[in-house]
Amino acid sequence: MSNNNENSRANNTDSAVSALISSISNTVNNEKISAIINVTNVMADAIFIVNADGVFESVNPVAARFFNVTSDSLIGKKWQDCLQEQYRDDYKYMFESWKNNYQTPLNHGPKEVKIRKNNGNCLDVELSISCLPESVVASTPLFICIMHDISKHVKKYKVLENVAKLDHLTGIANRCTLEKTIIKNWQECIVNKQPLSFILIDIDYFKLFNDNFGHVKGDKCLQKVARTIEECLPSKDSLVARYGGEEFAVVLPRSHISNAQMIAKRIQEKILNINFRDLGLPANVKISVSQGLACEYNNQYRTSEALICAADTALYRAKSEGRNKLCIR
Ligand SMILES: Nc1nc2c(ncn2[C@@H]2O[C@H](COP(=O)(O)OP(=O)(O)OP(=O)(O)O)[C@@H](O)[C@H]2O)c(=O)[nH]1
User: Fold this and answer.
1) In the predicted model, is pLDDT for residue 106 greater than 80?
2) CA of 10 to the centre of ligand 1 (A)
3) Is the CB of residue 50 less than 8 Å from the CB of residue 142?
4) What residues does the GGDEF domain cover (predicted)?
5) SS3 state of residue 118
6) Are 172 and 242 in contact (CB under 8 A)?
């Protein structure tokens, strides 16, 4: 480290220490606090100290880097204002409640939060807050806050989460997500006495498509079908998932059978209109789907599995009655 850096760090430390000490008039153990601040200033973790009003008393160089400002510029400001909006009120409330009940020590976290950098960007951090003991600060409560940058983990977690939730080929929900979604919607719809519709969609004669045009084009066809179904869904609550091979499932919460039937018909028509010329196939190559629809309303089915079974039976009928057909259970 250069002498310049050492000098500037020493100056920062001195100014932070004197700012803190001058602001804490009743503290009997100023030396201890200076020692703590001196230690935090050379630590690799992001550390700041706030008072009971949530005002920054000291910010070490690593924490200042997290906020993308200088340590000095934060002193005197409310630390909660450096959090992303959605977390601010929780922490304001935490400090307010603590002030009304001094007896319980405020020790919190570690908890994942997002802080706001000076440039407007957000940073994912894990934050813990600990009340400094009375042996260090006699009359003015101070809190030592430690942050760890977890942005790389959050990014990796999101990637893995998508791998776990989505079907690799089509990018729509996979079977596991479908099952979780049905269970969640089943409970909500039963409790709120609302309908829940479920459609199973199976491409007709898909083996022939693969045999005639190859599996690579077969894969592209599955992607087109997934996109087409997705485009027909009415709201964000609805879900299309890959149920298996060339079979798809649609969950329509709060959808009565008439509405679900309309959506299924739209899917049927749009799939008939898919063209494969971009895959180098002749314009007359077309595919169709068979669909089975079932709707839970007024405790018609006892379980979500029974609802799925009903849609499956209806799909089986659609296949046996000639395909390119929608059957309702
Ligand atoms: N390209 C491709 N083909 C798949 C995939 N998953 C399943 N398949 C194919 O889907 C075909 C399904 O064939 P079948 O179960 O006989 O059904 P079908 O030919 O569509 O006939 P029906 O359903 O009775 O109308 C098989 O040829 C599978 O190899 C996949 O991910 N990619």
Assistant:
1) no
2) 71
3) yes
4) 194-329
5) coil
6) yes
